[in-house]
Amino acid sequence: MPQDLAAPAPVAAADSAPVAAAPGPAAAAEPPVGTPAKRPPARRDPYFDNAKYLTIVLVACGHAWEPLTHGGRAATAAYLTVYAFHMPAFALISGFFSRSFDMGPGMVRRLLTGVVVPYLVFETAYSLLYRWAGDDPDLPLSLLDPGYAMWFLVALFIWRLTTPLWLSLRHAMPIAMALAVFAAVSPNLGGDISIQRVLGFLPFFVLGLKLRAEHFARLRTRRVRMLAVPVVVAAFGAAYAVAPWFNATLLYHSSSVTEQGLPRWAGLFTTPVLFLGALVLTACFLAWVPGRRWWFTALGAGTMYGYLLHVVIIKASRFWDWYDHSWLYTPLGQLAVTAVAVGLITVLCSGPIRSVFRFVVEPRMSWLFHDRTDAGKRATAAAPPR
């Protein structure tokens, strides 16, 4: 999930779920003095690439379905069901791939080039788009007030920087949950750097830091998959029942409960309940993610591209009233919107698109950083002779 949203430094940067390959016969040979030790080749785990691709598909579908919620109860139920867990799943997987983040030079470099630079570029571009397409030349340009989906990059940056802290705490999850509750009951917390969402989704990221591969393996059993089906059906049924009156902004964690018309004490309950519900649905989703290689597996390495680029098209659909056609609100039209969203995000995660936009999504920026090869040579030259 970014470079992809879920890779370390990053959802975002190693783009992989690396599994160390077995060393060959020559691996035991000691390298000459001064020669950098070569790491054994790594291969990607198709399960996690599949999970990242399918998660970004849900993100695209959720954004595409939003206008349809004004015209149909079933569409609203689908929207609520997906929004109940798709960003929590994103945050959890991002946390899982951030476990190795230790503030080392390589990690910091990837954090800057894989999260900070894309955020600066795309947040500026989106703000200019809003000015032009929205015919609002006075719209302020503020990098501290992320627009639309850009909040996740800000959150990912903050979460990654604090990863060593969460890994060192003995009771990290209760503390993260307490911060999420604090955000829910604090109307004056402010909107800068999307702090409400940063704290609201923090427990999922911290939980991902604590998970191991074997935890995901326990979900991929026939029994869990069979149990997941009635759970998801029940969740959709509950969403369908509450669709006419439920406030979907509770799922965004973008504001306090008092700003949504609820008493402050309600945040003490809504936050843990939404967390548990999202966790159950995320487990159901991960249980059905295929573990072997599929045609879309390679697309899991390009989720950052899909995440950043699809926002332009989503916003264009709002600015130019693409949804002003009554047939889109029919069952056939809703299926058509879903198919277009899936096709669009698939193309945006593909190799050709990544090649075109790599200079802004995964810039090398070697001019800004010390070359690691030169640094290694200097360290070798400074080392005392053996």
Automatic annotation (TrEMBL):
Low complexity bias spans: 22-37
Region (Disordered): 22-41
Protein name: Acyltransferase 3 domain-containing protein
Entry keyword Membrane: yes
Originating species: Streptomyces sporangiiformans
Entries under InterPro entries matching the protein: Acyl_transf_3_dom (IPR002656), Nod_factor_acetyltransferase (IPR052734)
PANTHER family the record matches: MEMBRANE-BOUND ACYLTRANSFERASE YKRP-RELATED (PTHR37312)
A molecular-function term among this protein's GO annotations: acyltransferase activity, transferring groups other than amino-acyl groups
Short name of one Pfam family: Acyl_transf_3
UniProt KW keywords: Membrane, Transmembrane, Transmembrane helix
Domain Acyltransferase: 46-346
Lineage, top ranks: Bacteria, Bacillati, Actinomycetota, Actinomycetes, Kitasatosporales
Residues passing through the membrane, by range: 77-99, 111-133, 139-159, 224-246, 266-288, 295-314, 334-357
Signal peptide: none
